[in-house]
User: What shape does this take?
Amino acid sequence: MDSDPTQVDPDLLVEQVKPLVHLDTLENLLNHARANSLWPLTFGLACCAIEMMAVGASRFDLDRIGAGVFRPSARQADVMILAGTISRKMGPVIKTLWDQMPSPKWAIAMGGCTIDGGPFKYPGQYAIIEGADRIIPVDVYVPGCPPRPEALFAGILRLEEKIKAGDTGWGKSA
Assistant: This one.
């Protein structure tokens, strides 16, 4: 190009102009909104529930990632957080609450007991369900005995990533 100061290189113009409008599909926009507005239903069954309550307190502040208000009703929630040992008596209750939740819905299994029975898993035991995924589909597993509040926080962030990526909750239509 000439050394004429009134001329501007067109390649420089393209690099400097940023797009003002982001175009995307409606489904992707809905997934982004869903990921940033989770409504957890807490189901604390044992010691993991104490750590789950701690993550809802002001120190960890779930509100800043859009998941701060724990719901008391399954009909108001889209994420079930299972925390603790699941007895055979509680299995049908968990399934009923899961069925009452509107779609799309997700589940987080928190703690070793919820994931696979934990220390209560031994031959001949009859009272414990060895894994929440035997009752409902689980999207995110948070290991530990009990897991720290930071681990549950990271699990919720992982779930948000999955939702933004288009995982609409175990084949449930949006």
Q: What stands out?
A: The mean pLDDT is 85. The helical segments are 10-16, 26-35, 48-55, 91-100, 112-116, 149-164. The longest strand covers residues 40-44.
